[in-house]
Amino acid sequence: MQLHDIKTISGMPENTKKIDYSEEARPYLEYLLHRGMTVAEVMDCNVYYGLPHKDKELNRLNNRVVFPVYGGNNELVSWTGRVVLPDYNKPDKYYMCPDSEIAKTLYPYVPTSKEHVILVEGILDCVAMRRVYGATYATFSKKLTDAQIKLLLDWGVKEITFFWDARDAKPDVEARPYLEYLLHRGMTVAEVMDCNVYYGLPHIS
């Protein structure tokens, strides 16, 4: 099924359960509370948790909190899971629904009336930032896709501030003054990307 050019999915994985007040769900609820979410926010976001499964791919959701991701009309288009184990040192801390079109949407899919938005990578950062500034969205990565740009333009957005994760955000922090300069001079984000604009760095010959 297609919805606003975003493919929908049939439902959440079979080995996930919605977080509640049960003993089984407690470690996942406590993890989210430790990360700064309130109980009300956890329930409002309909967060799930993953359980063991004999299927290798589904078993990757074990020991993860899993956020459903929606598109227009509140249709499910993807999900993303985050490992809760504190000593987990593999690169796949995040695991997203395979074959979904998560890169075509933002979290949450709630059109804004503001011309300026803040973009962050992850859902937890998004939930925290929205307490301070409601027009904040998660992009699920440090790359803003053409589809996400179009979505923001359709919502009437004219200015964007990026707040990527500090531990690996150096290239984006480095580029930010140049992007903000072009936006200040009247270009839109889409125009900057379409024009493939570069910026210069110091060099010693």
Could you please describe the fold and organization of this structure?
With about 200 residues, the protein is of the alpha+beta class. The protein has helices spanning about 25-35, 40-45, 55-60, 125-130, 145-155, 170-185, 190-195; strands spanning about 1-5, 5, 15-20, 50, 65-70, 75-85, 95, 115-120, 135-140, 160-165. The chain contains seven helices and ten strands. A hairpin with a 5-residue loop joins β5 and β6 (about 75-85). The mean pLDDT is about 85.
Provide the residue-averaged pLDDT: 87
Major sheet description: 5 strands, antiparallel
Low-confidence stretches: none
The coarse overall form would be elongated
Counting DSSP E segments of at least 2 residues, the number of strands comes to: 10
**Biggest sheet, strands in spatial order?**
3-4-5-6-7
Distance between the termini: 56 Å
Concise structural overview:
The protein is an alpha+beta fold and 205 residues long. The chain is 28% helix and 20% strand.
